[in-house]
Amino acid sequence: MTGKTKKALTRQEQFMLRHKRHHHQITFFRALLFVSFLALWEISADLGWIDSFFFSSPSRVAVCFVTQIRTNSMLSHIGITLLETVASFFLVLFFSLAAATLLWRSPRLSEILEPYLVVLNSLPKSALAPLFIVWLGTGIKTIIVAGMSVAVFGSVISLYTGFRQADEEKITLIYTLGGKKRDAFTKVVLPGSVPTILSTAKVNIGLALVGVIIGEFLAARRGLGYLIIYGSQVFRLDMVITGIIVLCVIALLFYKTIQVLEHRIRIRFKM
Amino acid sequence: MPDILELKNIGYSYHNLHGETRALEDISFGVGEGEFVAIVGPSGCGKSTLLSIIAGLLAPEQGTILVNNPDGSLRYPKIGYMLQRDHLFEWRSVYRNVILGLEIQKQMTPSRLQAVNRLLEEYGLDKFRDKRPSELSGGMKQRAALIRTLALEPQLLLLDEPFSALDYQTRLTVSADICRLIREAGKTMIIITHDLAEAVSLADKVVVLSSRPARVKRIMPVRLTLKDDSPLAARNAPEFQDYFNRLWEDLTHDR
Predict the structure, then answer these.
(1) Which domain holds residue A44?
(2) Do the interacting molecules here have an ipTM over 0.90?
């Protein structure tokens, strides 16, 4: 009996070990890829295989980043882009939840609006940016609206689709317990749509960033999008590539934040 | 037993662009106070539609439902409805699931909550009140769903094939269990089932419906000797097979 349990335990240990080793390997290769990419980039720039004027190099990017922080206002560029993205993210979340709720409440309204939503969703939103500039000027408002415009229609559609997938029988249950449509929404549809809301939020944060950068390309005096466009216009490609790398880090941070939030909410709702 | 509810010539049709589908035709039967009525019929004959009408979720197109309350009032009896699956919400604890009806009707009074707590204790769910529904066994889930229904203190319970999602063995014990609890609570019950043995073993009266459009084919009172109120023992009653065969005949020789 004891021998059997012992054997089973070692098997389990073996499995755990394999699992851990697998994870270490993946992490190692990820790091290796990153480091060798940087090394190759640096070496090729130093040895003149690529023109460092056009392609820059990790050391130049680092120097550029530090001087930008010191002399210009890299931090304020980052801050303004972050602010605009977070603002448009929350506005999109708020508006699309409200709109999807309204559509769910009134099937007639959703039927009427369906073709308009489809058209607005498939329209390339960057085409709207010039309009926003004329209407709203070249301030932070325009950028936030541009960021929203990219995400909001898709978000409304996916939230509404999620709402409609709520279990019909669970809604019937609410009616048999004497509930109204409003109870069906707050007790069944909304809590049942938490996974949809989370995945939509994940998509939205990325789209909001896209919209904000497009907006900054066209109509800003501050922000990373402005920095990138400005750098390309004055042929300071160090600046452009630094901007892009900072954007990579920001995108990663956003993704991680949402992932942590999602994990917490899933634990809270036991999903 | 005086009938507290009397269905008179109930008719109902479904309408769509391809035309009208007659679901119920001239359905009449009565339900006595404390009586257990089973409705059997071929699948798709409109049993669930009939239950929705009795529950007040649908309005009948023809016919009426008469109410004879013992106290002479005209108030429609309070209905408790149990669906095919337990439909406990995974995002709520067991306790928050069973008080769902009270929450919706804003009746979370101390006396109602006390009654719920008593039921949780009686049904052995007290220890699981803070667990999630997925941590309960199939039988316990049905008990939780029953408490959720009973919390609103209904007079008439409507059960729409409530055990059909369970495997056969669990189903036998759970249906016996739930029906015993409903009897003890002194409620009137209408149950839809396609299981003839279940109908005979549980009910005081079986209403046989024909295939669509459903008409009442037979109303068969069930009197089993050897009845110690346990549906499992009822299956061994000498009359059981005879009742079963009559229902079987009715359903196989449709029309």
Answers:
(1) 2-50
(2) no
Q: What is the pLDDT of residue B42?
A: 82
- Joined tokens for residue A29: 């290769």
Q: What is the mean pLDDT of residues B164-188?
A: 80
Domain boundaries, chain B: 3-77+158-252, 88-154
Please tell me the predicted confidence (pLDDT) of residue A209: 93
Digit-coded pLDDT (tens) for A160-194: 999 999 888 899 889 888 888 999 999 999 988 98
Q: Inform me whether the C-beta atom of residue B1 falls under 8 Å from chain A C-beta atoms.
A: no
The closest of A186, A198, A187 to A162, measured between CA atoms, is A198
The three-class DSSP label of residue B238 is: coil
In terms of DSSP H, where are the helices of B185-228?
196-202
pLDDT beyond 80 at A210 = yes
A170, A183, A270 ranked by CB distance to B104: nearest: A183
Partner-chain contact B104 A179, CB within 8 Å: yes
Interface with chain A: mutation pick from B93, B100, B108, highest number of A CBs within 10 Å: B100
Higher pLDDT, A115 or B46: A115
Under a CB-based contact definition with an 8 Å cutoff, are residues A147 and A212 in contact?
A: yes
- Number of residues that this document lists for chain A: 271
Mutate: best of A176, A187, A190, A196, partner B, most B CBs <10 A: A176
Which helix (H) or strand (E) element contains residue A63? helix A58-70
All residues of chain B having their beta carbon less than 8 Å from the beta carbon of residue A167 are: 87
Q: Rounded to whole angstroms, how far apart are CA atoms A64 and A243?
A: 10
**Peptide bond before residue B60 is cis, with ω within 30 degrees of 0:** no
pTM above 0.90, yes or no: no
Question: Regarding the domain with residue range B3-77+158-252, which homologous superfamily does it belong to in the CATH classification?
Answer: P-loop containing nucleotide triphosphate hydrolases (3.40.50.300)
Min distance A250 CA to chain B CA atoms (Å): 33
Contacts of A85 by beta carbon, 8 Å cutoff, 6+ apart? A147, A205, A208, A209, A212, A250, A254
In this prediction, residue A6 carries a pLDDT of 53
The predicted-structure confidence for B213-249, as pLDDT tens digits, reads as follows 888 888 888 787 765 666 677 777 777 787 888 888 8
Alpha carbon of A271: minimum distance to chain B alpha carbons (Å): 8
Supply the pLDDT for residue B201.
83
Q: Is residue A156 part of a domain?
A: yes
- Chain A hits for B135, CB-CB cut-off 8 Å, are none
Name the phi and psi angles at A50, rounded to 5.
-120, 155
The confidence score (pLDDT) of residue A30 equals: 94
**What is chain A's alpha carbon radius of gyration, rounded to the nearest angstrom?**
25
Number of domains in chain A: 2
What does pLDDT average to over chain B?
83
